[in-house]
Amino acid sequence: YISVMIKDTSNHPIKVLLQNCLLTKSNYRDISDNLNHKLLLLINDMATHANTDMNGNNEDDINDLLSSALPILQRMPKKAASSCFLLTDGVLDDTTSAMRQILNQFTNLNIPCHIIQTSLASYVASASFGYISNPQLLNYIANRTGGVYYDLALLNRIEQALHELEENEDDDEE
Hints:
By secondary structure, this protein is α/β, with parallel strands linked by helices.
């Protein structure tokens, strides 16, 4: 089962793109096409409203997103293994008591929150409009809930290094 929610950095509300859809080999392509279509519409809407206020409180955004995800994850069928995957640029404030309460709920319900940092914001401050990403907080959220933190930039560099090693091994065999 898959549910997809999205929240951008503006004051737009959280949007649920998919909720409790059974994902199978036979319907994977249809669900993927549907999700791609909805994401394109959302990106176009965000681009149309690009001049809106970008000074939202990122901490509230993460709290809102995680607390909105909980009821959806709790309504998953009993046979489903609930997990939350959060894709983010990592621009967040430090934890607050509200966030700690939300993370406690994830932990008590055995719902891991996996974090994928999607940008180079931790390396280039201008990548996030001058805000600095907080990979330590992302790692804390993942560890606190039993999830895993992934740095997409690091994963890409590892993949490239493995590819280069593979090519070198092929050259050595010739």
